[in-house]
Amino acid sequence: MNIIIFGDSITWGAYDPEQGGWATRLRNYFEEKNDTDVYNLGISGDTTVDLLNRIEVEAKSREPNLIIFAIGINDAQFIHSTNGLHVSLDEFQKNLVKLLSIAKKFTDKVVFVGLTKVDESKTTPIPWNTDKSYINENIKRLDSLIEKFCEHNKLKFIPMESVVENDDLIDGLHPNTKGHVKIFNRMKSEVESIL
Hey, what domains does the chain have and what are their CATH numbers? Predict the structure, then answer.
């Protein structure tokens, strides 16, 4: 059984020096249990646009039985200089359709993970790029689009908005080790119910 997880820096495991994030914790968990391989294909900074450029090649080489998408928080990033989202709502919705279409070439088991909240006192703007902000209103808007998309396509949606609290975030955006553990615990039971 091959599980592949597409996502961004939160999937990749930023700021969890103990075990490399929730997706790597999931891999370690399933490796100990059975013959399930979990591939963490998170890339820091990725949006749905970036993911569309790589999904087909990466999925093809791993023959997935289950594809998990944990993407969208960077799409929701607000760019002050353009006064808009990094990826427009319309483009985001179209990208979800394209991602699902590509994923269905490989497996019928496709899951979307909801977006985590941010601590706006630290993310408006983000210190490492003051032209960009993460705002919960925008994140919630995209999270709702993902949830509706899943309902419409009869896909499993795993909500995350109430899983991670402000004190689980190291910089207002990325979970710390405690936050990754919370996401892992939520994902573990959800993935086990699918397998």
Answer: 2-76+85-116+137-194 (3.40.50.1110)
